């Protein structure tokens, strides 16, 4: 009995499945699926181009009416500078100021500045010696008094004298003695020195100075030939 029931159930299921299949086939052929409706787009026609506007007729060119020139003003005589300048711009030249010489420097107390003291005879003699042996002959020649320059004759002769001594004996190498003495209103500066080419005893340079330090006498003698000073002076 159970097998019969199972067979009936299976048979019913087959019948139902067969009927469902037949119904589906009948439905497909009787009512086929509708085709998709095509979408219609609206075509907008292009806007027409604007019609060309006819150009206005060109008016005939007519010659321009010449402008009437204005009459030129009559030339006038230029005014004088004094008349044309406004009164407030007139410049009156100031009187020239008299130049005054610069005042001399004064000390703090209001008295004139004291001039620098003159060099001592020793310092002056050394200065003149440096000019002679240092080749500053023009400065030394300027210190000679006119009478002494006349004894030499010319500056060229004095230059030749110095050039001969330098060539024969060379430069000064040492100082043996310096003295300052007074005699006959002059102050004498003497300097005994050795030189590159002798003699061993050296040469003595002589400057006779006045009160202002100018050279009145000049000479170079062998050492020992000059007598000792009788009136030594304070350097």
From TrEMBL:
Residues 45-55 have a biased composition (Pro residues). Residues 37-56, 65-123 are annotated as: Disordered. This is Uncharacterized protein. It comes from Deinococcus metallilatus.
């Amino acid at each position: 009995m159970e097998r019969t029931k199972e067979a009936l159930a299976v048979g019913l299921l087959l019948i139902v499945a067969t009927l469902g299949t037949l119904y589906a086939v009948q439905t497909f052929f009787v009512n086929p699926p509708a085709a998709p409706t095509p979408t219609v787009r609206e075509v907008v026609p292009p806007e027409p181009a604007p019609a060309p506007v006819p150009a206005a007729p060109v008016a005939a060119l007519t010659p321009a009416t010449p402008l009437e020139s204005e009459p030129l003003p009559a030339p006038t005589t230029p005014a004088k500078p004094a008349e044309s300048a406004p009164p407030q711009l007139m410049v009156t030249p100031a009187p020239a100021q008299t130049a005054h010489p610069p005042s001399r420097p004064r000390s703090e107390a209001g008295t004139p500045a004291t001039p620098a003291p003159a060099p001592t005879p020793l310092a002056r003699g050394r200065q003149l010696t440096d000019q002679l042996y240092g080749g500053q002959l023009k400065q030394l020649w300027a210190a000679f008094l006119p009478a002494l320059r006349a004894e030499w004759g010319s500056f060229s002769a004095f230059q030749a004298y110095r050039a001969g001594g330098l060539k024969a004996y060379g430069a000064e190498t040492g100082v043996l003695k310096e003295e300052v003495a007074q005699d006959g209103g002059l102050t004498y500066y003497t300097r005994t020195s050795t030189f590159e080419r002798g003699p061993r005893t050296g040469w003595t340079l002589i400057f006779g100075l006045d009160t202002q330090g100018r050279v009145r006498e000049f000479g170079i003698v062998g050492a020992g030939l000059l007598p000792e000073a009788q009136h030594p002076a304070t350097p």
